[in-house]
TrEMBL record:
It comes from Fontibacillus panacisegetis. Pfam families: Response_reg (PF00072), Trans_reg_C (PF00486). One of its GO terms (cellular component) is protein-DNA complex. Residues 4-117 form the Response regulatory domain. GO terms for molecular function: phosphorelay response regulator activity; transcription cis-regulatory region binding. This is DNA-binding response regulator, OmpR family, contains REC and winged-helix (WHTH) domain. Keywords: DNA-binding, Phosphoprotein, Transcription, Transcription regulation, Two-component regulatory system.
Amino acid sequence: MGKQILIVDDDEKIAKLIEIYLLNEGYTVFKADDGYKALEMMDIEAIDLVVLDVMMPGLDGITVCLRIRETRTTPILMLSAKDGDMDKITGLMTGADDYMVKPFNPLELVARVKSLLRRASYAVSVPQQQQEHIIKISSLQVDKETHTATVEGNALKLTPIEFGILYLLASHPGRVFSSEEIFELIWKDKYFESNNSVTVHISRLRDKLEKEMDGEKLIRTVWGVGYKIEG
């Protein structure tokens, strides 16, 4: 069965436009015109990705994103009529994986969807000598095969991007990765200047790790260079 995508937007014309392009790519498409219906649909169908508008009556997209992230790591592409770094950061901090501003090119949206779906099953390539399927650092255990991370047996609720970043750093202990390297390896896209995506996701990942690891700071910032995890 093909991938199932949920479009959540109260603008019927935009939702229909997105649907046409996604159907053309062979995806199964579901639609919801408000946040409550979207959450109901998530409980009924096995949704592989959500295209989620920020501004909606009733339950807005930010709240829907937060609700989804309570129990799921389903990739989320947020749409908004607002531009600017703060809007993007707000969307990403709620757990969104990517962000597009309206009006957008439907072909670019399809490309973003494909990229997100690839990343959801993404496994970072590591040197042959590091192909062990479980990595242990301090109380953290990262399992490449099951795509899970645990701290003393407690599972971390990580999005595909967060897991990708964690696995990348953990599988190369001591190596410093720049924001550009992380973005291009995980997002599989060209890095552009003033992109805050890596910073936001690193911050969110750190919060989750430190909460479970009693404040232990596993991810280190090397100022002016990038990020690393010591072995």
